[in-house]
UniProtKB/TrEMBL annotation:
This is PAS domain S-box-containing protein/diguanylate cyclase (GGDEF) domain-containing protein. The keyword Zinc does not apply. The keyword Nuclease does not apply. NCBIfam families: GGDEF (TIGR00254), sensory_box (TIGR00229). Residues 322-455 form the GGDEF domain. Keywords: Phosphoprotein. Residues 151-206 form the PAS domain. Residues 18-132 form the Response regulatory domain. It comes from the Bacteria. The modification 4-aspartylphosphate is found at D67.
Length: 725
């Protein structure tokens, strides 16, 4: 079955191609119309050559199926009329004519193909498909040529200064054409390239892939691509390129066509292609890959890489019958340091502790940061638990010295919990959990800063159990509250949206941020009950604002666990409608890692939400799932850059390539771009220089209760953001 609905009339047109059928036998006309219509083409027919001439004057047709032997005005007359009047169409002759000379004559006069009656439907459709595809390609080329015809010098300029590298290879793989951008980028002259085999410029490790790409005996039809590294004239430089190629063959009747997919034959002319410089893209992918496995603040392995390392070391320890220690380290009352001195100094403390842990450990040990103030050290190949205790004592000794910063002297207290393989667990989950229990015991019960796990310890004081109880109390005692933080459109100096941020207002522990309990809620199946309470509070505030005529976009953080549940989209839509609110005033924020959990249900929910007008934002971009491919495949609206990137901007004219690159990616994909973590006027001015950007952070307003946010919106004045405050 041939489906030709995808073939359009060229670059500027997406309308289906109109086909005119001309024959003096109505039955044949109707038969042809039925065959072609089933393949997605718009077909009409006329009886006789004279009617064909009238039809061609009244309407444009992309294809004419023409009988030769007709009374009065025959098919050859129609072809001559088309040729003499420069009518833009393609003719396929469908005739019972048996003379070879007649077939040659019509083909010479401009017909694209000659099909002899009787014919099979497949033969007819195959010919039509080839002609239409060739016509579509010709139209595309002609549209480009027409734009360039204004000036021959402009044409040469565009070809040679194209951002892409254009080339042509002959049958043997030698260059017959290169544009100036290719020579300029690689550093060679045209004389050094023309006539040379492509393999002379391919990085040796990529040569096998390049040979397979360019010389494969079975050539896929149309365009194909491969990523290669090219050697510049400066031998120390490599250029990453995405190479696209089209195999070109000479047609029997004249002209050229793309390879039909069969083996190369005597008609094979060569390979035309485009090489696109993706060096920056590859560099960005490397950065994102690093970010996926490392903590951005310290450069240490994160939980992802730690899990891989533990799995490898456990396998080794089992095979060699060795011991392995997991050391769980917590900075005591680190929140107080952050609250007292600010997050900038708090980050410096974290970095200092990371460096200290690396100094106290061996080269083969793993030091990982798994949370705000939590580290895990993996100690493989120890002889006894005393070896692990000795390392822990060394860490405590190092931490006993005060840390001196520009405006503060910090005295640290570390709590360390230890678990040993195989004594305290045979898998990573048990070892980490038991080390967590031990560190909690160290903080709350032990006179020492170090605690070795034993079965006598209970997990009643572990962080997760404590947090589960905290969440249950918050739900049952109505201790959940929602704060809102503004997002400012820097292009138009207006309020773009507000992000809803949940807090637990605990009588014993004060205001607790979501980083302290969301993960536990997901792991303990409390997330649905918790999410329902949070959503009710948000919708109640939205309804109150609506009654006062205030209707900002509200961004709601949704857990990956919730979004991966069947029916979540229906639940959210129903809840919003219960409060008589418009669906399009809400945007849900999801993290990159959502995309690798129950993909089918997640995508179904995302698509259903967007179909109902609810917008989708990717939150904390650059810290999770390490692929960019989903950005143009999912119905996304917003890209939120993780605040760790803004921390690196200390002055307005900082030279940072990541943020501008991400803004360009967002603009190219027509996504809103939000930079989180803007805390200073220099960071604000830095973002202002890039135009299309939305900003969020303490500089514009700290998270605030609903009543305070309402007043903020009513009295919003963008002028103050240009002044230091």
């Amino acid at each position: 079955m041939f489906d030709m609905r995808h073939i359009s009339g060229g670059v500027a047109s997406h309308a289906p191609i109109e086909v005119l059928i001309v024959d003096d036998d109505p039955r044949i006309c109707k038969s042809l119309q039925q065959i072609l219509s089933s393949s997605g083409l718009n077909c009409s027919y006329v009886i006789g050559g004279f009617a064909a001439l009238r039809a061609l004057e009244q309407q444009e047709y992309g294809l004419v199926l023409l009988d030769l032997n007709m009374p009065n005005v025959d098919g050859l007359d129609v072809i001559n009329h088309i040729k003499e009047n420069n009518i833009d169409t393609n003719v396929i002759v469908v005739s019972g004519e048996l003379e070879l000379n007649k077939a040659i004559q019509v083909l010479t006069n401009g017909a694209k193909d000659f099909i002899r009656k009787p014919y099979s439907p497949d033969e007819l459709l195959f010919s039509v498909k080839n002609v239409l595809e060739k016509r579509a390609l010709e139209i595309e080329n002609q549209e480009i040529i027409n734009q360039l015809k204004e000036s021959e010098s402009l044409h040469r300029f565009l070809v040679h200064n194209s951002p892409d590298l254009l080339y042509m290879l002959d049958q043997n793989g030698c260059f017959t054409f290169v544009n100036r951008n290719l020579t300029r980028t690689l550093g060679y002259t045209q004389r050094e390239l023309l006539g040379k085999h492509y393999s002379a410029f391919i990085y040796p490790k990529d040569l096998n892939r390049a040979n397979y790409f360019f010389t494969s005996p079975k050539l896929p039809k149309g365009t194909k691509k491969v990523e290669l590294r090219l050697q510049c004239k400066d031998q120390g430089s490599l250029l990453h390129v995405e190479v696209r190629a089209m195999q070109v063959e000479r047609k029997f009747a004249g002209g050229y066509k793309l390879s039909s997919g069969s083996e190369k034959n005597v008609n094979f002319v060569g390979t035309y292609g485009v090489a696109r410089d993706i060096t920056e893209k590859k560099r960005s992918e490397e950065i994102i890959r690093f970010q996926h496995n490392h903590d951005l603040l310290t450069g240490l392995p994160n939980r992802n890489l730690l899990n891989d390392r533990i799995a490898v070391q456990l396998s080794h320890a089992k095979r060699k019958q060795e011991k392995l220690a997991v050391m769980y380290i917590d900075i005591y009352r680190f929140k107080l340091i952050n609250d007292t001195y600010g997050t900038v100094l708090g980050d410096e403390v974290i970095q200092t502790v990371a460096s200290m842990l690396e100094r106290c450990t061996r080269e083969g040990d793993t030091v990982a940061r798994i949370g705000g103030d939590e580290f895990i050290v993996l100690l493989p190949g120890i002889k006894s638990e005393q070896d692990a205790i000795s390392v822990a004592n060394k860490v405590i000794q190092e931490a006993s010295f005060p840390l001196h910063f520009e405006h503060a002297e910090i005295h640290l207290a570390l709590s360390i919990g230890l678990s040993i393989y195989p004594d305290h667990g045979s898998n990573k989950e048990d070892l980490i959990r038991n080390a967590d229990i031990a560190v909690c015991h160290s903080k709350l019960r032990s006179s020492s800063n170090i605690c070795l796990y034993s079965k006598d310890l209970t997990n009643g004081n572990s962080n997760k159990v404590f947090t589960e109880n905290l969440i249950r109390n918050a739900i049952n005692e109505d201790q959940l509250t929602v704060y809102y933080q503004p997002q400012i459109d820097l292009t138009f100096d207006k309020l773009h949206a507000v992000e809803a941020l949940v807090r637990i207002k605990s009588p014993e522990h004060g205001l607790i941020l979501p980083t302290g309990f969301i993960e536990t809620a997901e792991e303990s199946n409390l997330i649905n009950e918790l999410g329902d309470c949070i959503l009710r509070n948000i919708l109640r505030d939205a309804r109150d604002w609506h009654r006062e005529g205030i209707n900002p976009r509200i961004c709601i953080n949704i857990s990956a666990v919730q979004l991966a549940m069947n029916g979540f989209a229906d639940y959210l839509i129903s809840k919003i409608r219960d409060y008589e609110l418009q669906l399009n005033m809400f945007e849900i924020e999801i993290t990159e890692n959502v995309l690798i959990q129950n993909m089918e249900a997640t995508l179904n929910n995302i698509i259903k939400l967007t179909n109902h007008g609810i917008k989708i934002a990717i939150d904390d971009f650059g810290t999770g799932y390490s692929s960019l491919s989903y950005l143009d495949q999912l119905p996304l609206n917003t890209l939120k850059l993780d605040k760790s990137f803004m921390r690196k901007i200390v002055k307005a004219d900082d030279d940072n390539t990541i943020i501008p690159a991400m803004i360009n990616v967002s603009n190219g994909l027509q996504l809103d771009f939000i930079a989180e973590g803007v805390e200073t006027i220099d960071q604000h001015e830095y973002l202002k220089t890039f135009g299309a950007c939305i900003a969020q952070g303490y500089y514009y307003g700290r998270p605030m209760p609903g009543e305070q946010m309402l007043e903020y919106i009513k009295s919003f004045n963008p002028d103050r953001f240009g002044e230091s405050h």
